Structure formats: structure tokens, C-alpha cells
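RECORD TYPE: inverse folding
INPUT: C-alpha cells
STRUCTURE:
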């Protein structure tokens, strides 16, 4: 089931007696489930919750016994790659178009920035809508990606032209490096995503977002840089923390995909995986862009 946090919603979690529980012993694709009898993933399910081992199990209509998912219509790694490519590809295209068609010179920067802020707010709303939905909506996810691309394109252009030349490309390269490093570390087993890891990351992320919200409120009503969490030495520190949190969420995304494939998740779940990966990569890119702006900015 989904985590209790609608923004950072992840699959691969079941509910036991009403409480979120991480499936630390997810079955491996092509093999028997861990902690089961003769490959039956339901033989030792906890009492009162026949779906704890597999959140995608189907209920037998006549006898009420959990059934394994059908072999057709299951999510595969190719599905995840294809839909993630579509989502990120659309985001990159709209970012490039907004960079080219929404100039940020002295005469047009206000108008372009206003359009970008509007697109970013709508994208945020769509992100929340999808996060609260039980099923993936490709239309919402792709629209979110397109609008997020408009926001990132203009913002990147402003930073690149007014604050730190070359910052956008450096942020892209940094994001790609983090993605590659986390993927290699996850596949090598250096990162173990379990219940403790999930709890720590979610607590740290909520604390981080809360601090940034407080800083923004102080900046809006008090002027200046608020509490200084986004500038100077503290800005650099929080930028690094933000990137590390993004790396942790990438590990959760990879676990989501791995569990979904192992459990025989429906094919539509690939859209949720693409949505989660896109949100995480946007987070990392934004933190890199902000960090580079602080380090190279002339102000």
C-alpha cells in the first residue's frame, strides 16, 4: 500500500492491523517468496491480513482465499523504463522550449518568471492530486511533467544567465551522477532499503520541508533571506542535505520498482514508478541548481 505521506508516496508497503509496515522480505523475481512454505506467498501471512506478503494479491470471490496475480498485464522493467522515458522526455522538451521561447532579458524576465511560477504551482497541485489517487493517471502525470518542465526551463535560464553561467548543465550532470551512483550502490547491495531506512528518510524529509517552509514564511513576511537556510554557509549545508535526501528517495524508488515487479504488480503501476522517479530527479536537480547558484553567484 502507499505510505502515509501523500507527497512521497511509495509502493512496496503493506498494512497490518491498520499500521504501515515495510515489506522487508520482498520476494525476488522468479523465485519463491521469503519466509513462505514451498513458494506459496500466502502460507504464512499474518493473521487477519492475508495480503501482508503481497499487496497485489487478488481475493478469491467464492472462498475468500488470496490468489496470486495473473501472469498477464504485469509490470516489467521495460514498462518502467518506457514510461519514465516518456515522462522525463516530455519534461526535458518543455524545459528546452520554455528556455528558448520565454526570454529572461530585462524587458521580459518579469513576464517569463510569472508564467513559470504559474506553471510550477499547477504542477504542484497536479502532483498532490496524483499522490492522493489510488490509481495512476497518465494524463495527470504527463501534464505534471510538461508544466514542471516549463517551470524548470525558465528558472534554469534565469540562474544560468543572471547568477551562475553554466549552472544548468552542471546541475544536469550532477543529477545524472547521483542517479548512477545510487543505482550502482543499490544493485551492489551497499544500500539496504528496509523499514528503518524508510522511517529515517521520511522523518528527515518532513523536517527538511518544514524548515524550508518556515524559512519561506520569514522571507515573505520579514524580507531578506528569511532565516538564512537558503543562502551563505547554511544554504550550502542545506543544499547538500537536500541532495542526500534526494539520493535516499531514489533508493526508495528503486525498491518500489523491484518490489512491484517481484509481486506481479499491474502494468499501470509503471506510471506510478515513473511519477516517483520524475519527482525525485526534479528534487535533486533543483537542489543542485540552488547549491551551484550559491557557490558561484556574484551577489
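DESIGNED SEQUENCE:
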Amino acid at each position: 500500500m502507499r505510505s502515509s505521506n501523500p507527497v512521497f508516496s511509495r509502493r512496496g508497503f503493506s498494512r497490518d492491523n491498520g499500521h504501515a509496515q515495510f515489506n522487508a522480505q520482498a520476494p525476488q523475481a522468479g523465485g519463491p517468496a521469503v519466509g513462505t512454505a514451498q513458494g506459496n506467498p500466502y502460507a504464512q501471512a499474518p493473521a487477519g491480513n492475508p495480503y501482508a506478503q503481497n499487496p497485489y494479491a487478488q481475493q478469491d470471490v467464492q472462498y475468500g482465499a488470496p490468489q496470486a496475480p495473473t501472469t498477464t498485464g504485469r509490470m516489467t522493467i521495460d514498462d518502467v523504463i518506457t514510461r519514465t522515458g516518456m515522462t522525463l522526455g516530455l519534461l526535458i522538451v518543455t524545459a528546452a522550449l520554455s528556455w528558448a521561447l520565454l526570454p529572461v532579458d530585462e524587458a521580459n524576465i518579469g513576464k517569463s518568471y510569472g508564467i513559470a511560477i504559474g506553471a510550477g504551482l499547477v504542477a504542484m497541485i497536479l502532483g498532490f492530486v496524483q499522490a492522493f489517487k489510488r490509481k495512476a493517471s497518465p494524463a495527470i502525470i504527463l501534464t505534471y511533467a510538461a508544466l514542471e518542465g516549463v517551470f524548470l526551463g525558465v528558472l534554469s535560464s534565469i540562474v544560468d544567465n543572471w547568477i551562475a553561467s553554466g549552472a544548468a548543465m552542471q546541475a544536469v550532470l550532477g543529477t545524472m551522477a547521483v542517479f548512477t551512483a545510487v543505482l550502482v550502490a543499490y544493485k551492489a547491495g551497499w544500500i539496504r532499503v528496509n523499514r528503518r531506512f524508510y522511517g529515517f528518510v521520511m522523518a528527515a524529509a518532513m523536517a527538511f520541508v518544514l524548515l524550508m517552509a518556515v524559512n519561506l514564511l520569514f522571507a515573505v513576511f520579514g524580507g531578506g533571506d528569511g532565516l538564512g537556510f537558503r543562502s551563505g554557509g547554511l544554504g550550502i549545508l542545506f543544499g547538500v542535505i537536500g541532495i542526500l535526501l534526494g539520493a535516499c528517495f531514489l533508493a526508495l524508488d528503486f525498491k518500489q520498482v523491484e518490489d512491484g515487479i517481484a509481486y506481479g504488480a499491474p502494468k499501470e503501476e509503471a506510471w506510478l514508478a515513473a511519477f516517483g522517479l520524475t519527482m525525485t530527479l526534479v528534487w535533486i536537480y533543483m537542489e543542485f541548481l540552488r547549491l551551484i547558484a550559491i557557490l558561484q553567484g556574484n551577489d
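NOTES: Residues 1-52, 58-69 have pLDDT under 50 and may be disordered.
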